[in-house]
Amino acid sequence: MSFWSAIIFDFFVAFGVVVGGSIMGGIGALIGHYHLTPMATMEELVGQLKIWGIVAALGGTVDMLRSVETNILEGHLGLVAQQVCMLLSAFVGAHAGYLLIIWLIRGDLP
């Protein structure tokens, strides 16, 4: 996979985990008669799912952090920069999903 393909892929995986997880959680709250309303459940879940969106997009943060450490120690700063870009892409995707759900629930952005 090329660098730009990986950047786009990481963005959308993180975005999808946050958006899909919160919507499915809201549906589950509706079907299961959860103590919160579906919208309140979605709002609660969306904040919790941001970190999991990033982790899912990167395939596990421990491996990525180990790889960054190895590349820094070996002096491969170009690879470190690519990995940091992938991390930022996953973060932006997760945050964009968060903002979308908050906007859909509240009608405004935080």
General description of the model:
- The protein is mainly alpha-helical.
- The protein has 4 helices and no strands.
- The longest helix is centred in the N-terminal third of the chain and has 30 residues, at 3-32.
- It has one domain.
Mean pLDDT: 88
Low-confidence blocks of residues: none
Radius of gyration: 16 Å
Number of domains: 1
Number of helices: 4
- Overall spatial form: elongated
Structural classification: mainly alpha
Helix and strand element order: HHHH
How helical, in percent, are the residues?
over 70%
What is the count of β-strands?
Answer: 0
What can be said about the biggest beta sheet?
none
Distance between the termini: 35 Å
The fraction of residues assigned to DSSP E strands is: under 5%
